Amino acid sequence: MDTGQQETSRGQPGRPNPGFAEFVTITALMMGVTAFAVDGILPAFPILGRDFDVADPNRLQLVVYVYMLGFGFAQLIYGPASDVFGRRRAYLAGLGIFLLGCVLSLFATDLNTLLAARFVQGIGAASGRVLSVAIVRDRFAGREMARVMSINMGIFITVPIFAPAIGSVILLASGRQGLFVAMLLAGLALGFWFLRRMPETLAPEHKMPFSAARILRAMGTVATNRITVGYATAVGLMFGCVMAMVGSSQQIFTETFGLGHLFPLAFALVASAQGVAAIVNSALVGRFGMRRISHLSVVVLTTLGLLQLIFAWSFDGRPPLLLFGLILACSQFLLGLAFPNFNALAMEPLGRVAGTGSSLVGVYTTVMGSLCGLAIGAAFDGTVLPITAGYLALTIAALAVILVTERGRLFGAHHSAAPGGSPPTGGT
């Protein structure tokens, strides 16, 4: 068991006590299962349009946007609720709402009913995003927290990228209802595992009695912490790069480069770089620290973005596919190094208000990243210039934010707060 673990979660007979690997797997799946519901339904759009007699195909996009709307704003609820009632109760309540949304989606007979069901699904799914982060923050600090967060955020980023391919397989085997059955079964299995093996990670002395004024003060603590706000902004900007790639990749690979049915393969090859980055980061962060890895990643990413834009411009926005794909994969790898470390750095100072902090950081970064990605995607003109320019702009902005947050110092190790706001335990 790691030395950063809460004392309250060990040494008590009959209490669940997962090992490191099991703990990481459960918290990663808390993100992964609900993240699949974002993009896993995309291959079903033609079937939904036919079954529900949708005249305007653009309305089908609401199946994703309504889900994200519920997902985004519900994050404001779960963090404060978990600080009052505990992480387990808050997560299981949210998972129950997600499962209800799966059932309602399964039996939807028209698009409006499905949209309402997806909104319910999104509200429930937010619990996994918020509370997996809070649970990790309760148990670990510093570089060990970053190691776990790297794996979890890698899952959160990677699952939606591969979800369309998985969804296509399910559709071929069992139709659109099979997608919601798969989500339902995955949620039930995860809920049973969580209930049996995950202890309450919030120490009793850190629970906050319900008080609107206290919750508002906790929100104020989060919103006025320079490190948290700065790194949360950097997370949002990096997430904007990810969303831009997800949103524009189909048009880029099929229209600009004419790959046609080979698009899923190209997409998977580029996306796999993020999974590799998660593994590399979890192995290196204990030695080099969150700041050193994430700061260096953004500096290199900015330089690479400038080179990518120059190459794209010199080829009138249509560079050779191999060159573009290689640079894009390298960019995704660097994003995979920066993203989880920024998220961990944003959470680290929050201690006993980690639940509220996770909520606010989640809402802030989700909304910012989605808007940035949408703006870049909307600028698609048949070339790769919009996405390359967008990547460069976002990475420059992230680098500037980090410089302000760290008062002009990059790569430095700070002392980290131990779980629950305990004395420092090491450098980050």
UniProtKB/TrEMBL annotation:
SUPFAM superfamilies: MFS general substrate transporter. InterPro entries: MFS, MFS_dom, MFS_trans_sf. The lineage of its organism: Bacteria, Pseudomonadati, Pseudomonadota, Alphaproteobacteria, Hyphomicrobiales. The chain crosses the membrane at residues 20-42, 62-78, 90-109, 115-136, 148-172, 178-195, 227-247, 259-284, 296-315, 321-339, 360-380, 386-405. This is DHA1 family bicyclomycin/chloramphenicol resistance-like MFS transporter. It holds the Pfam family MFS_1. GO terms for cellular component: plasma membrane. Residues 20-408 form the Major facilitator superfamily (MFS) profile domain. It is found in: Membrane. Keywords: Membrane, Transmembrane, Transmembrane helix, Transport. GO terms for molecular function: transmembrane transporter activity. It is a multi-pass membrane protein.
